[in-house]
Amino acid sequence: MKAASFLHGSCAAWENGAVLLTGLSGSGKSDLLLRLVDAGFDLVADDQVVISPTTHAEYIASPPPTLAGLIEVRGLGILRLPYREAIPLRLHVALDFSPQTPRLPPETRHEQTGVWSLTLDPRRAGAVAIIRAALRCASGTYELMTGIDGDTIICHPFSSRPQSG
């Protein structure tokens, strides 16, 4: 089994799944994390995330002990909040300001963890809702009917390959 690793990013939890936010320095990871927390998500980690493999072919996200419960809020300071210590990683979001994000993106997996990966402009007003909807797909509450490669399909992106429909 692989060893735990540290990733530069931020992480929030919704119910029983976590989203890992990555992007360049200054791309808005902490700002989007604060909006997620403000919308009811739980803080997992800000700035660095520990990713630990399990024996069940999934990864657990947690904060490094020295940063647990801390989040940077630009223009305000560093806040201490309640946080989740360990939660299964279900989604990766790569933050990108490019206006070229496809409407029906191809299936993409996060290279290090294998979880479904989306590219998202963190400035979009609907960014929090898109992340919550993707996590609801992961839990089976929602079905992704189109989007992966633009075909009409029912997709379970977090647990299996797309099924023709």
Give a description of the structure.
- It is built from 2 helices and 13 strands, in the order βββαβββββββαβββ.
- It is mainly beta and 165 residues long.
- Strands 1, 2, 3, 4, 5, 6, 9 and 10 form an 8-stranded mixed β-sheet that branches. Strands 11-12-13 form a 3-stranded antiparallel β-sheet, with no helix packed on it. A two-stranded antiparallel sheet has the order 7-8.
- Strand 7 and strand 8 (77-80) form a beta hairpin.
- The model is unreliable at 159-165 (pLDDT under 50).
- Residues 6-80 form the HPr kinase/phosphorylase C-terminal domain.
- One of its GO terms (biological process) is regulation of carbohydrate metabolic process.
Primary descriptors:
single chain; about 160 residues; mainly beta; three-stranded antiparallel sheet; P-loop_NTPase; HPr kinase/phosphorylase C-terminal domain-containing protein; phosphorelay sensor kinase activity
The largest β sheet comes out as: 8 strands, mixed
CATH fold category name = Rossmann fold
CATH C-level name? Alpha Beta
What's the CATH H-level homologous superfamily?
Answer: P-loop containing nucleotide triphosphate hydrolases
| Gross geometry | globular
Structural class, by secondary structure, is mainly beta
Contiguous uncertain segments of 5+ residues = 159-165
Reported CATH architecture: 3-Layer(aba) Sandwich
Percent helix range: 10-25%
Radius of gyration: 15 Å
Q: Helix and strand string, N-terminal first?
A: EEEHEEEEEEEHEEE
Total count of helical runs of at least 4 residues: 2
Whole-number tally of structural domains: 1
Protein name: HPr kinase/phosphorylase C-terminal domain-containing protein
Organism: Kozakia baliensis
GO molecular function: ATP binding; phosphorelay sensor kinase activity
Domain HPr kinase/phosphorylase C-terminal: 6-80
